[in-house]
Amino acid sequence: MAHESFEDPNIAKIINSSFIAIKVDREERPDVDALYMAATQLLNGHGGWPMSVFLLPDGRPFMAGTYYPPQDRPGQTGFPRLLRALADAWRDQREAIVLQAGELQLAIEKEISFVDHLAPYTKTIDLPLIRLTLRDELVSRVDDNGGFGGAPKFPRPSYVQALLEFKDIDSVRAVERTLDAMSRRGIYDHLRGGFARYSVDREWHVPHFEKMLSDQALLARVYLMAARTYPDHGEWRDVALDTLHFVLSDLRVTSGFASSLDADAGGVEGSHVTWTVEEVAQALSESGHSADLNRVLSRWQISSPGLFEGRSIPRLAEGEPFSLPEELIQATEALRHARSQRVQPGRDEKVILEWNAMLASACLMSGEGELVDQALELLNSLRFTHCSDFTWWRTERREAHASAGDVAWLCDAYVDAFETTGDEKWLGDAHELARYLLEHYWDGEVPTEEFPRVGRGLFSQSDLVTDLPARPKEIFDGATPSNHAVACRAIARLAMCLDDDQLHAVAQRLVELAATVLDSHPSALPDLVEAAGFALEGIEIVIPGAPNELSQHVRLLPMTSSVLITGLGASPLLRDRRIGLAYVCRSGACQLPVSTVADLDEQLRRAHS
Q1: pLDDT tens digits for 344-392?
Q2: Nearest to 100 by CA among 157, 56, 66, 68
């Protein structure tokens, strides 16, 4: 619509004669998107983008839709006709429009606060049973090509992670099939690195070529977690590291990392990624590597004609390793150089706090020295670029207040940094963010150990936001985890590190508020299922002192529902503990200390059973 309608002088004249036009970046203002998407879904039965919403001067919507063509088409009203009709209605039937806006607003408020209308959960939360139910749902949805649904097929790293703790053959096959398919087929960029947004087909072959920072971070995390869970699948770690190095090389900007690369280059979707046999031959010939032509064509299944509009999308042939064979390094560099000479995709350079925190978390999880250093540097810099006058902002532009997801992800990444370094500075920063989250986003009274069942959870937007007629809440996980789930995980992990009863109560309250959905439809809340493990069953692994064999071993484990507490800081769990020994604790109550990796593994096995 931007090209067809908003840039058309005649349509622009109609808009400007009767409306004040506001174009919203949904990534910068997810709260605006959530509010008006609810209106669009209520009025049309479905949502989508582009989204066109018509508002009263006070921001309440009265009409909404998705795509409108620049002129009438069979079955579709053209945008100019719609504009004229709404302008006429505003002039001649304003009372009816205001009445409709009022009725719609009531429906929207109920829709965007779904969690407030759930029936109270009166049973004891059976988390092992919820996990099993989730596992059964996911296994039943995996197809032969990997993934959890038909085309268009989106990566769902949260689903994969939910299956990692199960060792039955169906769960293992689902994980293997999904992770291998995504990393070996066309959705992965085998020459430059990184995942495309989604696949338009069931086979993960033809992607929508856009690359999002959030996808790179979340997929790198789950590949790293899977590699920890299944150490014999070393390629998964290679996929994660290759993805993270792509981000560091292609998305870095002055104040952090850019949010995305466009799907098209020079107006043609995927033109920077796809190849013909002739283009490969020319690139190799110009670099003096023509002898590698057949090997290159075979490895990446480049043929003539290709399967995508006559061109080929590189994907690994059966039996080819993910890591680049040494004999193809120079030939591959020739292809990369040739590709760099093409028109490149545009880059959205806004630095989103939430997605940069996700990236820092993934880099920390890698344990690689360079990536860990990059993550710590990024976390330190975000405080200066995204915080001013004790206020957190979603982007470095400091125009939109941070969402609950921004604050929660940064808090969680700070806990990751503490686990990685043992430096209590990160716990202090995380605690400060948790207080900010509760002060500006919590609905009602904050729970305590004495009064745990108070408060109604988190608004998605800060109370400092004053330009919207309602405040959404978010509990359902989508392409990214809900802020409800991430806040629960971050606060629960911080509570475990600090042995803080009030934070424990907050995390447990977040689980309780959504327990009805957890019990009946856990696949709608996979990230909250994970977070609930920290809130309800969390295990503290306490190893006082400098890094040693025990703490290094723990950092290689999946860390399901567990936190690692090291160093000589102020955490109460470090007090009166012998340096160099390991303590496995739950809610501050610890087993006898151990000094060997074997004894530590046995205690952890019993604690998780």
Answers
A1: 999 999 999 999 999 999 999 999 999 999 999 999 999 999 999 999 9
A2: 56
Residue 171: predicted pLDDT: 97
In this predicted model, what pLDDT tens digit does every residue of 291-344 receive, in sequence order? 999 999 999 999 989 989 999 999 999 999 999 999 999 999 999 999 999 999
In a domain, 123, yes or no: no
Q: Check whether residue 460 and residue 588 sit in a common domain.
A: no
Do 422 and 531 lie in one domain? The reply is yes
Rounded CA separation 160/173 (Å): 11
- Are residues 488 and 504 in contact, defined by beta-carbon separation less than 8 angstroms? no
* Domain boundary, last residue among 240, 266, 292: 266
pLDDT level of residue 570 (50, 70, 90 thresholds): confident
- Residue 16 maps to which CATH number? 3.40.30.10
Cis peptide before 50 (omega within 30 of 0): yes
At 272 the pLDDT is 96
Report the distance separating Cα 273 and Cα 449, nearest Å.
55
In angstroms, rounded to a whole number, what is the distance separating the alpha carbons of residues 420 and 19? 53
SS (H, E, C) 123-147: CCCCHHHHHHHHHHHHHHHCCCCCC
Q: Is residue 297 part of a domain?
A: yes
**Residue 346 within any structural domain of the chain:** no
Shared domain for 258 and 279, answered yes or no, is no
Which phi-psi region, left, alpha or beta, contains residue 385 (left: φ > 0; alpha: ψ -120 to 50)? alpha
pLDDT at 48: 86
Domain of 15, in residue numbers: 2-112
pLDDT at 183: 98
**Which of 581, 337, 308, 403 minimizes the C-alpha distance to 30?**
403
Contacts of 236 (CB under 8 A, 6+ apart): 179, 183, 223, 224, 226, 227, 230
* Spatial contact of 105 and 470, defined as CB atoms under 8 Å apart: yes
Q: Could you tell me if 375 and 497 lie in one domain?
A: yes
Distance CA 608, CA 169 (A): 20
Same domain, 328 and 411: no
Q: Coil, strand or helix: which one is 211?
A: strand
Which among 259, 286, 264 is positioned nearest to 274, based on CA atoms?
Answer: 264
Could you tell me if residue 137 is inside a domain?
Answer: no
Q: How many CA atoms lie within 13 A of 52 on its CB side?
A: 19
Q: Please work out, in degrees rounded to the nearest 5, the angle formed at the alpha carbon of residue 185 by the alpha carbons of 182 and 187.
A: 65
Domain final position from 535, 553, 582: 535
Angle between helices 213-229 and 169-184 (to 10 degrees): 140
Same-domain check for residues 331 and 369: no
Residue 225 near residue 365, CB atoms below 8 Å: yes
pLDDT at 514: 97
